[in-house]
Amino acid sequence: MILWISGPYGVGKTTLATALAGKLPGAVVADLEPIGRAIRETLRGHPCAWQDHQSCPPWDATVVVFLAGLHAYIGGPVIIPMTVVDQDLLAALLTVLSESADVHHLVLHADPMVLKERIISARTPGESSIDGAKRRADRLRHLDSGCCAAGDGLHAGGHVIDTSMLTHKQVLTSALAYLAGRKATTCTACGDGQVPR
Q: N or C: which terminal CB in the chain sees fewer CB atoms within 10 Å?
């Protein structure tokens, strides 16, 4: 199973991905940011460089090969907590990935005011006050675009979980229930009650 988790900055994508990895046997969380950094660094100063690495063709080609290969290698769930702003690109990625795995798309939603409060109050253990302030400022800068992307297209392409009034544990329970339900409809011959792998 490949599970893509979308949603605006600060909504809890990474938190849910980590929690799901602890519940799904053999699961890993795939961080795609290093791929973007590698492409940006490699093309720095080159005429083919793009300001947004998600718009650069080598990014989606590399992501597909990496995720499909990782899934084939580990045989268990691969969880990707990342928002792709271009909805056509995300749909294309999920379509190609579905050729090699059972693909699911979760969309985490929250009221913008709730998100703002979460971002402002968020603290990471061990981070410096300067790093924390920089991270929060960056998330607040992207808050509007992330919420707009979610409203414009993400909700139509995945299973939406409104996290506004939910605890992290409740979000996890909702995600697991969705995956178990999807297994029941897509793998009725399997009677082990496990989430798809």
A: C
User: The whole model's pTM is what?
Assistant: 0.80
Structural domain contains residue 148:
yes
What DSSP string describes 3-23?
EEEE--TTSSHHHHHHHHHHH
What per-residue confidence (pLDDT) applies to 194?
A: 39
Question: How far apart are the C-alpha atoms of 27 and 34, rounded to whole Å?
Answer: 19
Q: Which residue has the higher pLDDT, 147 or 119?
A: 119
What residues make up the domain containing 88? 2-186
Does residue 192 form part of some domain? no
Find the CATH number of the domain harbouring 10: 3.40.50.300
Q: Report how far apart, in Å, the C-alpha atoms of 111 and of each of 11, 133, 161 are.
A: 9, 22, 12
Residue 22 lies in a domain: yes
Is the confidence at residue 116, as pLDDT, over 70?
Answer: yes
